[in-house]
Amino acid sequence: MGQSHFGSLCVKEKKQEEERYVRANDRPSNLSYNYANNAIRTSKYNIITFLPLNLFEQFRRLANAYFLFLLILQLIPQISSLSWFTTALPLILVLSMTAVKDANDDINRHKSDRQVNNRMVNVLIDGVLKNEKWMNVQVGDIVKLESNQFVTADLLLLSSSEPLNLVYVETAELDGETNLKVKQALTLTGEMGDSIEALSAFKGEVRCEPPNNRLDKFKGTLTVNGQNYGLDNDKILLRGCTLRNTEWCFGLVIFGGPDTKLMQNSGKTKFKRTSIDHLMNILVLCIFGFLFTLCFILAIGNAVWEVKEGSVFTVFLPREPGVNAALSSFLSFWSYVIVLNAVVPISLYVSVEVIRLGNSFFINWDRKMYYPKNDTPAQARTTTLNEELGQIKYIFSDKTGTLTQNIMTFNKCSINGKNYGELYDFSGQRVEITEKTQKVDFSWNKLADPKFDFHDYNLVETVREGNPEAQAFFRLLALCHTVMPEEKKEGELNYQAQSPDEGALVTAARNFGFVFRSRTPETITIMEMGEKVTYELLAVLDFNNVRKRMSVIVRGPDGKMTLYCKGADTIIYERLDHSCKRLMKVTTGHLNEYAGDGLRTLVLAYKHLKENYMEEWTQRHHEASTALEGREERLDQLYEEIEKDMILLGATAVEDKLQDGVPQTIEQLAKADIKIWVLTGDKQETAENIGYSCNMLREEMKEVFIVAANTPDGVKQELQYARRKMCPESAEEPSVTKARAGLFWLQKTETVQDEQVEGDYALIINGHSLAFALEKDLELELLRTACMCQTVICCRVTPLQKAQVVELVKKYKQAITLAIGDGANDVSMIKAAHIGVGISGQEGMQAVLSSDFSFAQFRYLQRLLLVHGRWSYLRMCKFLQYFFYKNFTFTFVHFWYAFFCGFSAQTVYDEWFITLYNLVYTSLPILSLGLFDQDVNDRWSFEYPQLYSPGQLNMYFSKKAFVHCMVHSCYCSLVLFFIPWGAIHDTVRDDGRDLADYQSFALLAQTCLLVVVSIQLCIDTYAWTTVNQFFVWGSLFAYLAITFTMYSNGMFLIFTSVFPFIGTVRNSLNQPNVWLTIFLTSLLCVLPVVALRFILIQIRPTINDKVRYKTQVEAPPAPAPRRPVRRVSTRRSGYAFSHSQGYGALVTSERFLFKRPLKSLLAFSAQTETPRPQLFRPIPE
Question: Which range is the signal sequence, renumbered to this chain (predicted)?
Answer without folding.
Answer: none
